Amino acid sequence: MKKLGLIFAAAFLFVSPVLAQAPPTNSVTLNWTNPPAYTNGQPLTVGQVTVFVDGNQSAQSGAINTFTTTVLPPGMHAFNVVICDNMAPANCSPMSNTAMAVIPVTTPVVPPVSDLSATVNP
């Protein structure tokens, strides 16, 4: 009986879908469409995408078209991407348009007391 239980448990782990986690609060997810061809019409194979967050770069290999930042501090943030092919040396695009996002300032709120009671003393 123990063996049968282990088989079912193993089967459940194997077929159960991986639950996607929501991105962290105050992070930003960027999405874009990679160019399918060079400007002359020749097919393009993307080898690297460099994502710029407030001017700081993060190189990502492969043809990604989405990127989620770490948690960002409150304020205005600027984002750009540069696409490079898989040639050696790489040919890279100019910097993309700038996408902007504002992380709001949040002030923690102290909740009110909810269990206040009054007792009349003799």
Which helices and strands appear, and what pairs or packs with what?
Layout: H1 2-15, E1 29-31, E2 46-53, E3 56-61, E4 66-68, E5 75-85, E6 99-103
Antiparallel strand pairs: 1-4, 2-3, 2-5, 5-6
Task: Please tag this protein with its features.
mainly beta; 11% helix; Immunoglobulin-like
How would you describe what is shown here?
This protein has 122 residues and is mainly beta. The protein has a domain of 83 residues: Immunoglobulins (Immunoglobulin-like, Sandwich). The strands form two sheets. A four-stranded antiparallel beta sheet has the order 3-2-5-6, with no helix packed on it. It has a two-stranded antiparallel sheet with strand order 1-4. The longest helix is centred in the first third of the chain and has 14 residues. It is rod-shaped, with a radius of gyration of 25 Å. About 11% of the residues have low confidence.
| Low-confidence spans | 4-16
Describe the global form: rod-shaped
CATH arch. level architecture of the domain at 21-103:
Sandwich
CATH class label of the domain at 21-103 = Mainly Beta
Q: Got a strand count?
A: 6
CATH H-tier superfamily of the domain at 21-103: Immunoglobulins
What would the average pLDDT be, to the nearest integer? 87
How many helices? The count is: 1
Distance between the termini: 66 Å
Q: What is the CATH topology of the domain at 21-103?
A: Immunoglobulin-like
Short description:
The protein has 122 residues and is mostly beta strands.
